[in-house]
Amino acid sequence: MEKAKANTKRCKGCYYCVKACPKEAITVSDEVNLKGYAVIKIDEEKCIACGMCYTVCPDYVFELV
Q1: Which among 22, 34, 60, 63 is most buried, taking Cβ atoms within 10 Å?
Q2: What are phi and psi of 18, to 5 degrees?
Q3: Is 56 helix (H, G, I), strand (E, B) or coil?
Q4: Cα–Cα distances in angstroms (integers) from residue 7 to residues 2, 32, in the given order
């Protein structure tokens, strides 16, 4: 089964993915990347691999695997 995976090194904290996720599987984490942005995390149990996060992300953070 496909799931979304995130490369949080690329995340710039726009959180479009958080708003776009129909299952609320993406949330803002307490983790900060090297660029200083609070990054997202994916709840793999909730993720249905719909691709909405991939579609809205301007920084190519996501891939479906």
Answers
A1: 63
A2: -60, -45
A3: helix
A4: 16, 13
Q: Report the alpha-carbon distance of residue 53 to residue 45 in Å, rounded.
A: 16
Q: Number of structural domains, the chain?
A: 1
- Give CA torsion, residues 39, 44, 49, 52, to 10 deg: -30
Helix (H) or strand (E) run with residue 55 in it: helix 52-56
Q: Model's pTM, two decimal places?
A: 0.93
Q: What pLDDT, in 10s, does the model give residues 9-60? A: 999 999 999 999 999 999 999 999 999 999 999 999 999 999 999 999 999 9
